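Researcher: I'd like a structural prediction for the single chain below. Treat it as a standalone chain; there are no partners to consider.
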Amino acid sequence: MQGWIKLHRKIVDSPIWNDPHYLKLWLYCLMKATHKDREVIIGNQVIKLTPGEFITGRKSLADDLNAGVKAKLKLNELTWWRYLNCLERMQMLNIKKTNKYSIVSIVNWHEYQETEHQMNNKCTTNEQQMNTNKNVKNVKNNNTRKQVYEDDSIYIMLAKYFVEQIKQNNPNFKEPNYQKWADDIRLMIERDNRTEEQIKYLMKWVQQDDFEMANVLSPSKLRKRFDQLVLKVKVQKQKNKAEHSIPTRTEIDFNEGEDWH
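Model: Treating it as a single chain, here is the predicted structure.
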C-alpha cells in the first residue's frame, strides 16, 4: 500500500476504538480504498471503482488482516467477515456482494478523505446544480395524513418507558412529543427489524451508562446509533466477563445469533 489517509480525532468516541480487531479492520478499509477512479480486472471482468471503494472477499480479507500475526492471535475468515458486516450495520461502510467478490464502499468518504482539489471541483459542480434548480418549487401534498398512535399501542408504551428511564436520572426532563417518539420507534421495528425486547433493553442500558445517558435522549438518536450501541454493549460485556471470569446470562440475541449480553 502507498500514500496516506486522513483520520478524524472523533474516532476515539466510536465503539471501535475500544476493540483492537474492529479498529484494525476499519483502518485497513480506509487504506485499501482507492483515492481515484480506477479499473480492476477480476477474471475476465473489468470492475470500475470510484473513490472510497475496494474489492475484497472472505479469504483475501482474512489473509491481509492475519499477515504477520501470531497463529494463536489470528481470526478465521468467518470472524473477520462478520466484523466487516457489523461495520456495515453501523453505517460506516456498504458492501455490494457477488458470488465471486464484494465491493466495499466507505460511507462519507468524500467528507474526510478527498483532497482539496477534489473538494473544490465538487463544490463547483454542486453550486452549478443549485443555480440550475433554484427556481424549482417543492410541492407539498397537503392531503398527507400523519399516523396517529393510540395510548395502548406498543410504540406509545415504549416511548413512555423511555421517558421513565430518562427521568430516573433527570426528574425534570421535559415531556416529549409522544406521537413523534412513537413514529421513530415504529420505524425501528418495521424498517430496521428491531424487536420490542431489543429496543427496550437499549432504552434502559443507555440510561445506565455514564456517557450515553446524556447523549441518547430520544428514539431518533437511539435509532441512529443502534448498531454502535449494540457493539458497545458487547464490548462492555466481554470486558466484564474477562475481569470477573463469570459467564453472563443471554437475554437477547442480536446479529446472526451472537450474544451481546
